[in-house]
Amino acid sequence: MKEPFAISFADVEAAAARIEGHVLRTPLILAPRLSELTGATVLVKHENMQATASFKERGAVNRLLTLDEDEKARGVIAMSAGNHAQAVAYHARRFGIPATIVMPETTPLVKVENTRAHGARVVLHGETLYESAQKARELADEEGLVLVHPYDDPAIMAGQGTVACEMLDDEPDLDMLIIPLGGGGLMAGNAVAAKALKPEIELIGVEAALYPSFYNAVNAEDLDIGGATLAEGIAVKTVGVQTLPIVSSLVADIVLVGEDLIERAVNAYACLQHTLAEGAGAAGLAAMLKEPARYAGRKVGLVLCGGNIDTRLLAAIMVRELEREHRIVAFRLTTSDRPGLLGKVASLLGAEGANILEVSHGRLFLDVPAKGVSLDVTVETRGDDHSRMIEHALRENGYAPRRIFPRGETSGG
Predict the structure, then answer these.
(1) For the chain, which terminus, N or C, has the lower number of CB atoms within 10 Å?
(2) What is the DSSP letter of 354?
C-alpha cells in the first residue's frame, strides 16, 4: 500500500508473533441461527472469550511488550471507562509493570473495582473520557509514566489487527468483515491486515447513531454527537488522528445503527448464539439487522469485540425484546367488581394458553364505574397472533380489553 499509514502489515505480523501465548486465539464460529436471521452466512469471532472479555488485550499486550526496561520500571498510564482499562491493568500485572488507570467519575463501580482487582492504581477524574484523558496526560508528564492510548497508537492498532489475520486464516473465503468503530483502533489495524491478505475483501464499519464521529469525518457531515447509548464502548466523540486516514482509505462504508437495533443484536447473541455481547460488541450484527438484503448470500465475518455487559441490563433488554415481539403483552380489563373475578380471568387466560406474569387492581380510577374494577394483566404469549386470540377471547367474555403498550399508552377497547 502506498498510503503513508501509521502501521503496515509487517507491523501486524510482528504483533501477532509478539502476543502469541499471551492472549487467546479466539474461535471463529459459524452461526447458523444468526445466518438464518440475516440471510447471510455469518461467522462470529468470539473476542468476548479473552480473559477480560474483549479484544483490547491484543493491543495492550503488544504495546506493553514494546516498552524498554526503563519504561517498564517507570510504569504506564491509560484512560478508559471499561475494556481498555481492564486489559492494560490485567497484563501490566502479569508483566510486573506498575499501572495507573484514569477513569471518569461516572464509571460504574463494578468496572472501577474490576480494574483495581487487577492491581492497577485507579484515579477517578472528570465527567467524561475527554477530561480523563487530559488528567492522564498531566500525570504522565508529572510522574514520567508511559501513556498507553486506547486507540491512537501504532502498537495498539497493530495488536488489534491480529483479529483479521486469525479470521482469514480460519476462513479465507470471507467476503466481508463488519467491525465496530469507536476511536478506530480495531478497524484500522484490521483494515490494514485484511486488505494485505485479501485485497478484494469489503470492510464495513459500524457506529452507534448517537456517536457518528467517523461518519461525520469521512463524509464531511455534521450530525449531532452525544447521548446515552447501550454501545458505550464505541461512544467516542473524537476519532483517532492516526486511525482516520486508514479508515477513510480502506473502509467501504460506515453504517449508523440505532439503539433499538443494538438491543435486538445483544438479544440475538444471547438467545440465538448463546453468548454474551455488550452493546459495542453487537454493533456489527445490528448493522446486518438494519439492512439484511445488503448481506444476503454473502459470507460475513462479525467481530464480537466484547462481552462486558451488566447482567441486569441484559435481563432488561431481553424483556424489552419479548415485548417488541408481542410475547409479553399487557391488557387492561374493565368489568363489574364481583367475587371470583380473578379466578375467572385466570381460568380464561389459562384456557387460551397464556402464562400470567403480573396482575394489579384499580378500583379508584375515575374512568372506572363506581361498582366496577380495572384489572391490569401482563401475560406471556407465543407471539402477535396468539396475543390477538387472547384479546378476542377476553372481549367475547365481556372484559372490554385494551392493550397497554410499553410506554403506558392503551389501545381502544
Answers:
(1) N
(2) P
- H/E element, 89: helix 83-95
Q: Which residues of the chain carry a pLDDT beneath 50?
A: 1-2, 364-368, 370, 408, 413
Residues 278 and 136 in one domain: no
The reported pTM is 0.86
Longest Cα pair distance anywhere in the chain, in angstroms?
83
14: containing domain: 9-55+155-320
Which of 227, 235, 332 lies closest to 278 in space, CA to CA?
A: 235
Do the Cβ atoms of 52 and 60 come closer than 8 Å?
A: no
Please give the Cα distance from 363 to 370 (Å, whole number). 8
The sheet that has 28-30: what strands, in order across it? 28-30, 41-46, 299-304, 176-180, 202-208, 253-257
How many domains does the chain contain in total? 3
What is residue 302's three-state secondary structure? strand
**161, 44: one domain:** yes
- Name, in order, each residue with C-beta under 8 angstroms of 232's C-beta and a sequence gap of 6 or more: 81, 82, 279, 280
The reported pLDDT for the residue numbered 341 is 86
Cα gap 341→217, rounded to integer Å: 62
Q: Looking at 47-109, which runs of residues are DSSP E strands? A: 76-79, 99-103
What are φ and ψ of residue 387, in 5° steps?
-60, -40
- pLDDT at residue 335, rounded to an integer: 83
Spatial distance between the Cα atoms of 399 and 335, rounded to a whole number of angstroms: 6
pLDDT of residue 336: 81
186 and 228 in a common domain: yes
Coil, helix or strand at residue 330: strand
Query: Is residue 49 in some structural domain?
Result: yes
Question: CB within 8 A of 31, min separation 6: which ones?
Answer: 42, 43, 44, 272, 273, 302
CA angle 100, 8, 240 (to 5 degrees): 45
Taking a C-beta distance cutoff of 8 angstroms, is the pair 71, 146 a contact?
yes
Which secondary structure element, helix H or strand E, spans residue 237, and what is its range? none
Which residues, in sequence order, are bridge partners of residue 257? Answer: 208
- The residues pairing with 204 across neighbouring beta strands, listed in sequence order, are 178, 253
Helix (H) or strand (E) holding 403: strand 402-404
Q: Which residues contact 248 (CB under 8 A, 6 or more apart)?
A: 217, 218
**Are the C-beta atoms of residues 123 and 135 closer than 8 Å to each other?**
yes
In a domain, 411, yes or no: no
